[in-house]
Structure formats: C-alpha cells, structure tokens
From TrEMBL:
The keyword Oxidoreductase applies. Residues 6-334 form the NADH:flavin oxidoreductase/NADH oxidase N-terminal domain. Keywords: Flavoprotein, Oxidoreductase. The keyword Flavoprotein applies. This is NADH oxidase. PANTHER family: BINDING OXIDOREDUCTASE, PUTATIVE (AFU_ORTHOLOGUE AFUA_2G08260)-RELATED.
Amino acid sequence: MTTSTLFAPLTLASGEVIKNRFLKPAMSEVMGDKSHRPTQQLINLYRHWAEGGTGLLITGNVMIDSNALGEVGNVVIEDESNLGWLRTWAEAGQQNGAQIWVQLNHPGKQSPRNVSQHPVAPSAVPMAGANSFAFNDPRELTINEIHEIVRKFVRSAEIVKKAGFNGVEIHAAHGYLLNQFLSPHDNRRSDEYGGNLTNRMRILVEIYEGMREAVGDDFSIGVKINSTDFSEDGFSEADSLTVIKQLSELGVDLIEISGGNYENPEMIKTTGGAFFVNYAAKVKAQIATPIAVTGGFKTAAGMNAAVADGATEMVGTARVLALVPDLPMQIRSGQFQSIDLDFLSTGIKSLDGKIGSMIGLSYYEMQMARIATGKSVRRTTNAWIPLSFSLRKQGLSILIPQRN
Ligand SMILES: Cc1cc2nc3c(=O)[nH]c(=O)nc-3n(C[C@H](O)[C@H](O)[C@H](O)COP(=O)(O)O)c2cc1C
C-alpha cells in the first residue's frame, strides 16, 4: 500500500508550509501548573510528538481568561507573564520541522463546578444530559462582556505569535462558548449576537477579524468547528457549511472538522470509522481553504484514502497519537497498519455507563503523562489504572466529568 499522499507538503494561505498531512489535534493535557503556566512535562510531550514526525501539532485547549477555565490544569494565555515558558514550548514543538499552533478556547457554560461558580453563556440555558450535575447553571453574557471576550481572544493570539508559535486555532467546536453562540439551542439572544445565523456567527467572525488584524497575513489562523451538534435544535450541517464558507472567504488558513459536545460526545466514540469524512468531502467541494478532518481514524489505509480521494487535505488523529506518538514515522516505514482503541471497563457495568467518557479521557491523559516523562505507553482495558492515575493527580475533582 502506498501512503505517499500523506507525506506531501501543504502550503497555507499564510505562506507557511506544513511538511506532511498529519495533524495532532488538540488534546487537553492538563499539564499547566497552579499559575496556569506550561510545565516542563508539557514541553517534553510536544518535543516527543514533534520528533515522531507529525507535521502540525495543535496544543490542547489553552484558555483566554483565568476566570473561565474548562478544567484544573489548563494553561492560560492572557498576558505576557509566562512568555519565557511559552517560547520554550513553541521551540519544543518545532523540532524536526514540525509546526505548533495553540488552540484558544473559552468554555462558556461547559465550565464545571470545581472551577466555575458562575459560568457564562450566550443565554441562560442549563446543561442537559448525564453530565449536567457537574455544572452550575450559566448566566447570560452582557454585550460589554462579549466585546471583552473578543478582545481577550485577540490579545491571546498576539501573545502566541510573540512567543514564536506558528499559528492559533480558534476552538468553535464541542459545545464550548463559540459553539454555544452558533447553536440556536444555546443562543436565545435577541440582540446582534443571536437570532439568525449571521448574528450567531458574529462573535466568531469578530474574533477572527480582530486576530487577523493583530497578527497579520503571514501568521496561520485555523478554526475547529462541528459538522453538527447531533441535536435537533442545535448547530446543523447546513449552518456549519454556511459558517465554513464565510470563514473561507474571510481568509482562514485551515478548517478542522469535528462534531458533538458534552451532551452528545460523538467525537470520542471508540467504535466506527472516520466519523466526519463524508461531511468533509462535501465541504471540500465548496471551498478552496484546506481542511483537516478529525475523529475515528485508526488505519493507515483509511488516513491515506481520505487525503488521496480528495475528502480532506489533512488527517487529525488524537487518541492514536497518544498511543503511538511516532505514528507518521511508523506509517512511513510500514510498521503501522491499524490499531484498535481500547475499551476500558471497571468491571461494574452500571459504573462504566456513568463514567465511561471520564475513563476514556483519564486513559489518554495518563498516556500523555507517561510520554512526557519518558515512559512507554501502557495499554490496558482495566479502567482502574487510569482512574487511580487521575485520582493521584487531581484528587476527587476527577469525579467531575469530562472534557472534549
Ligand atoms: C484526553 C482528550 C482531550 C481532548 N481535549 C480536546 C481539546 O482540548 N480541544 C479539542 O478541540 N478537542 C479535544 N479532544 C478531542 C480530540 O481533539 C478529537 O476531536 C477526538 O479525540 C476525536 O479524534 P480521535 O478519534 O482521533 O481521537 C480531546 C480528546 C481527548 C481524548
């Protein structure tokens, strides 16, 4: 089988060249320290991934405001106080010709109780679903607060550029604040930030345009966006296509396609093939901007076909890269053909049902911590192993699920 398509370089509108088609999507590493600074562990992890041959590394979500965290252990970029650490992180992720972008995020109402007493959202629509107990009800943002959030995203992007990273990715997927604005279910506003789709995408467009003005044309800006929220009154495929076309016209460098949120965690299913490839192909037929599709890739043949068949320019593999950090090198040498993701169990069916997604996330956090400390990946189906890792690291706050 040839996999040469995966090793062709890709030039973005910014002029940056990504050496191959492998994308390490954002995976929250929870390796920030108490002051939300990147730690040496986090830096080691990215050096390791860069050395493994991936062309584009996107960091786990970094928050734009220390008062709006998605979880304990988030890195925050809101001023220049950690510039030295950020520079070291950027350099580590640029080894071996790799690029590193920072994913910038605001969680909105998906900010759990252990970090947010009073989360904010476009409208005061509480979380629903199995995980809702973990979240306090949000309150509606004022217009001034929305403007302040736009300024904070832009400021963070400026600092990311100053620290030497190659780009930023705006997180508008997985049910976080910008996805909440896009979704008619979460956004019930009647001002210029709610109602029709032009209004619902306004905050995202303002953030993109503000960033572009601040960082210039030669710095890469990507957007991660859902194909759909998988709920009847949420952000639909038709909406998604319209937003993507608009972003493309505005000059975004890369669009990463995913789907789901905390209420419908479709993006971290363990079974099934590449989840969003068909949608990606539909998008690609309509825009010139390069796209990346993330979710469910497990075979070298499937990754190659997605690019070779023209469904996408880049292939994002998150969990596989936490198990096989040198995946691109292993594909190049023919060593990697396919992998099955582990289905972990506590041995108690009802408990698995309740905390299944948390078990999965703990498992990949454990692998990232092992890679960062020079240990080999530890495959298991025993859920108590990652759970005890997370309990040791974070105490009982791990019982607050989950992140995507
Ligand atoms: C431990 C973990 C943390 C994640 N954190 C983020 C995140 O910070 N931002 C994001 O956009 N997606 C995050 N995701 C979702 C992944 O980027 C990706 O969309 C998802 O895992 C599906 O891709 P895969 O099938 O290749 O794993 C996370 C996934 C995992 C497993």
